[in-house]
Amino acid sequence: MSLATEELLVRPAQHQDLPALHAVIQRAYRGDSARQGWTHEADLLDDERITPQALAAIIDDPASLLLLGEREGAPIGSVQLTDRGAGEVYLGLFCIDPAVQAGGLGKNLLEQAESAARNNFGATRIVMTVIEQRIELIAYYERRGYVRTGARVDFPTSVEPPLYMVELAKNLA
Which residues have a Cβ under 8 Å from the Cβ of 135 and sit 6 or more positions away? Predict the structure, then answer.
């Protein structure tokens, strides 16, 4: 599977992609470099977003698909799709390198991820969680057809002060 547009090639990530992809994910979510973009969590969290070993486990998991977005041969984004069964896919690790955000690449990657969820897992519904303080990011997803389900879940790791996630979903049928 390989989906291309003028500027963005989206394909399944391979193990050899992981060092460069891990660096993109870290830049997009954490640290000062993340602050170049608008989708970061750097003001809320400062730990490693995900380890290279966890990325490798995603690639090896038949219920998951880790997509790599690249431009001119360089990784610039990612998205993870995990089949939950019964037509539902969870979307996570969605990011675009802060240096190239705000040019439509994220919208393009999200659309291609939704298509991959339908084509690879037969998804009729896609679900995600977003840190509830990320109001502008939630609004971004709502503009793309995602709606709040009303579910509020604990952040996956213990942090002080505690963080919570809101669940968003979109029907793909």
Answer: none
What is the rounded distance in angstroms from the CA atom of residue 69 to the CA atom of residue 79? 8
Q: Among 131, 109, 135, 100, which Cα is nearest to 24's?
A: 100
Q: Tell me: the pLDDT tens digits for 61-114?
A: 999 999 999 988 889 999 999 999 999 999 999 998 888 777 788 899 999 999
Helix (H, G, I), strand (E, B) or coil at 13: coil
DSSP for 121-149, written as a single string:
H--SEEEEEEETT-HHHHHHHHHTT-EEE
Q: Are 131 and 168 in contact (CB under 8 A)?
A: no
- The strands making up 147-154's β-sheet, listed across from edge to edge, are 3-4, 9-12, 64-71, 74-85, 88-96, 125-131, 164-171, 147-154
